[in-house]
Structure prediction request, 382 residues.
Amino acid sequence: MTQMIVPLLDLKPQYRQIREEVRRVTDEIYESQQFILGPRVSGLEAEVAAYCRTNHAVGVSSGTDALLLALMALDVGQGDLVLTTPYSFFATAGAIVRLGARPVFADIDADSYNLAPGAAAAALEALSPASRRRVKAMIPVHLYGQMAPLEALGALAETWNLAVVEDAAQAIGAEDDRGRRAGSIGTAGCFSFFPSKNLGGFGDGGMVTCNDAELAERMRILRVHGSHPKYHHHLVGGNFRLDALQAAIVSVKLRYLDQWTAGRQANAATYRRLFAEAGLEDRIGLPAEGPGRHIYNQFVIRVPRRRDALRDHLVSRGVGCEIYYPVPLHLQPCFADLGYEEGDFPESERAAAETLALPIYPELSDDQQHYVVDQIRTFFEA
Ligand SMILES: *Cc1c(COP(=O)(O)O)cnc(C)c1O
Prediction:
């Protein structure tokens, strides 16, 4: 096959589809010169709350700030502990540490890459009685677009009296086996509108969903420096506001989200068929798909031993791919003082060494997918 270029993500076809609508709504904002919060942001909040099936949603400046704000509103601070996974984007643990709290890591399930309830329970039980009292919350991450097992994790949270902050940055519209949406089950759900997420803005943005009116109100106050009423502060918050421009653009894109999700799911099904036809199923591990709704923010394969060589091969053949994530969080240099060591979380470490994300964006063509699988086949034949 002649060389093709298959980027990991190409947002231009999506923009061509919505260009006129985006120009119209952004132009209205330029004419109004109203850039901060306002009706565009509250409009998107209502739309996202409805989409995620929650009572409230609070627009914020990024997915990272969504996590920070949710934890702040839940009073997580100095000396507290928060249970989470070491196999996630940095912000999951970064938000905990920035508030003066400490992450307590527990290993992932090898098939789903999500926090394993058994490991989470064991990590809590291993704490000293004094530490146990300081555990305030857990942050399950719905990695790659598939929900973490919130039934079992929720039961654990109830036993230990923990708030559950869902890191749903990669999972807008994902559903568990009971049809419940990401961000609607825990105490709060955190979303990101970073451009590479399934619902991305034209810059940074995010949202926190919740069902509790008081929590939503607290987050709205903390989002503007804790100011309530204006210039009177009972709380120290920050500037966590979502721009009207981003809200207007994300609102346009939200109307296409289910169509784009269907495109990603169809591409995932095509990969599964092509890998089976190429006889590659025993060479690579395909993503496990549970009974819920997987929205495929990423299509991640597992390549024992030869992952880096395959990545180099694909890049040299014009196929974009990426390692999410090469260093598990417990081994990040900035968290060395937490005292974790190599070998502490074998499944997270093995995932970091073996996983590779392939292009899965909705507009990917059949030819491009054939090309990707063909390049992987030639790699294993060589
Ligand atoms: C992207 C992401 C975030 C952070 O979102 P930003 O909008 O980039 O700040 C947090 N957690 C996970 C799992 C993510 O993928």
About this structure: The longest strand covers residues 56-60. The chain has a mean pLDDT of 97.
